[in-house]
Amino acid sequence: MPNDELDAPIEALPVATFAMVVIAGAPPPIPLETITCLAGQVTDDVDVAVVTDDGDTAREMLDLFSPSFASRVRVVTSYAQALAQSDAPYVACVGPGELPTGDWIEQFLRAAAIAPGAVLRAQWADRPVRFDRAAPYEVTGPLTLSPRVPFDPLFTPIGPPPPLSTFALPRGPRVFEVGLWPTIAYAALLGGVHDLDAVTTIRLVSPKLEQPDPTAEIRDLLATVPVTLPAGLAPRIAGLVNDR
Description:
By secondary structure, the protein is α/β, with parallel strands linked by helices. It has helices spanning 30-39, 55-62, 67-70, 79-83, 104-114, 180-191, 215-222, 233-243; strands at 19-23, 46-51, 73-76, 90-94, 98-100, 119-130, 138-139, 144-145, 167-170, 193-205. Strands 1, 2, 3, 4, 5, 6, 7, 8, 9 and 10 form a ten-stranded mixed sheet that branches. Helix 6 (180-191) crosses helix 7.
């Protein structure tokens, strides 16, 4: 049966705030660096929420920033609370160890004008690091640009999942209630994906920041909703079945 809430129509871009940015919880010092990246955006057309169980520490971090930026940041304990802070028509999420570039939101803003209603996907570069007690972390290798591969809405495992912050998606009433990755995957199946020719995230790579494989969570959602396959995917599925 159709899911009316997940299939809600996409809102038009307003004159005011473009995106709600949700910062997912992560071990220190990553949230401070992430917030610093957001404070340095070339556009301030965003609302920001930090999802954390340690609100006192988050508020202490915000005291380090200018009042003009800190006043736009909310500290909350859930994604539902984060989304309640803004009516922005697009949502972007920053995961642990993800450091957005200064033009991160500006790149998404331009792409949304070109492909309204689509999930926006940017590129990223990985930076290997090691955590120790002497410093927040130590860089252990060079930046490596992400591979250019077609977007797979079923997230067939081809390695670690991409950074959350490489996506911006149109907002619906239940965005993120079904989980971060299932929301992105399903929104991509509904509205398609528009790729940006830009690197917008530096991802710190360390065992301390590894994220669970989202494949099972995504497939659990897709088993409960109608799915329209993008062009070219049906023959691929048929080939997989025939090879078994």
